Amino acid sequence: MSLMKRISLIFRSKANRALDRAEDPRETLDYSYQRQQDLLVKVRRGVADVATSRKRVELQVAQLEQQQAKLQGQAEKAISVGREDLAREALTRKSGLTQQITDLRTQHAQLQGEEEKLTLAQQRLQAKVEAFRTRKETIKATYTAAEAQTKINEAMSGIGEEMGDVGMAIQRAEDKTAQMQARAGAIDELLASGALEDVSQPGGSDDISRELDALSSGSDVEAELARLKSGAQPQAIESSDGDILQAEPGKTETTDEGRA
Amino acid sequence: MIIRILGEGQFDVPEEAIERLNSLDEAVEKSVEAGDRESFTGALAALLTGVRDSAVPHEAGSLDTSDLILPPADATLEEVRDLLSGDGLIPG
C-alpha cells in the first residue's frame, strides 16, 4: 500500500478514536462543538506564544546590534589614540557577536514561519467549526436520533480530521518554540552576566571603555595644554585640518564608513 | 479527489494527476524504508509540490473527509515513521 494511503488510514482512525461519543448521537454534536471551541482557544494561545518568542528574539538582536556598534566605536577610538591592541580586542568581540546575530535571525525567520502557519491553521479550523455549527443545528432540527447517525458521523469525521491536523500543528509549533526558548534563555543569561557587557548601562563600564576613557581624558588634557602653549588661533587649526583632509583622503573615507 | 497536506489544509486534486502523484509517493516510501534522509527530503518536497501544483484549495467551509493525507512539508523522516506507526498524532 502506498505511503499516502497508510498515513491516511492511520491518521483517520486515530482522529476518530479521539472523538467523544454520547449515548444520544445528537448530544455528541454538542460535546464535539465544545471541544472545537477549546481547540480554537488553544490554537489562538499557540499563535500568541510563538509571537512572544519572536518578539523576544527581535529584542535580543537589537541588543546585540547595539553592542556591536559600541564595540565598533571603541575600536575606532582605540585606533585614533594609537592602541591597536585595544582595537583588536574590540573587533574580536564584535565578530563573536556577528555569529550570534546570524543565528538569532535564522531563529526569527523560523518563528515567523510557525506563526504564519498557526495563524492559517486557526483560520481553517474557524471555517470548519462554523460549518459544523450550522450542520449541527440542521441535524438536530430535522432528524430523529436514529436518522441523524449517518449525518453526524460524516460531520464528525470531517471536523475530526481538521482537529487532528490543527492539534498536530500546535504541538509542532510548541516543540520548535521550546527549543528556541532554551537558546534565547542562554543568550539572556549571557547578556545579564555581562559576558557580552551590559548594554543597558549608559556609557558602559567594561574594561575597554575604562581604558579608553582614561586615555582620552589624558590626551584631552595634553591637547589642551599644547594649544595653550602654542597660542594657536582657531583659523590655524582649521587650515591644518584641511591640509590633512587633502593629503589623506583615503584615511578620512575609511573612518567615515566605519562610523556609518 | 481531496488530498490533505498536514499543516496546509485540503486540496482538490484532479484524477488525471493521481498517477503522477503515485509515482512521487513511491519515491517517498522507498526513501522512508531505506532510511535515506537525503533522498527523503527531496522526494517529500517533490510530492507536496506535485499536489499543490495540480490542485486548488478545497472549499474552506466544507466538512468533507480527505481521500489521502500527506505529512507536513517540514516533516523529518523520523516524524513520517511516527505517523506510520500512529505515534506522532495528536488528534483534537
Overview of the structural elements:
The complex is a heterodimer of chains A (260) and B (92). Chain A contains 7 helices and no strands. In chain A, helix 1 packs across helix 4 (145-193), helix 2 (25-80) runs parallel beside helix 4 (145-193) and helix 3 runs antiparallel to helix 4. Chain A has 260 residues and is mostly helical. With 92 residues, chain B is an alpha+beta fold. Chain B contains 3 helices and 4 strands. A 4-stranded mixed sheet of chain B has the order 3-2-1-4, covered by helices on one side. In chain B, helix 1 packs antiparallel against helix 2. The chains are: A mainly alpha (260), B alpha+beta (92).
Give the proportion of residues in helices of chain A: over 70%
Q: What is the overall shape of chain B?
A: globular
**What is the CA-CA span between the terminal residues of chain B?**
24 Å
- Described by the principal axes of the CA atoms, the overall outline of chain A is rod-shaped
Topology of chain A as a string of helices (H) and strands (E) = HHHHHHH
- Kindly state the percentage of residues in helix of chain B: 40-55%
Q: Describe the strand arrangement of the main beta sheet of chain B, using strand numbers.
A: 3-2-1-4
**DSSP helical segment count of chain A:** 7
Q: Let me know the number of strands of chain B.
A: 4
Low-confidence residue ranges of chain A: 198-204, 236-260
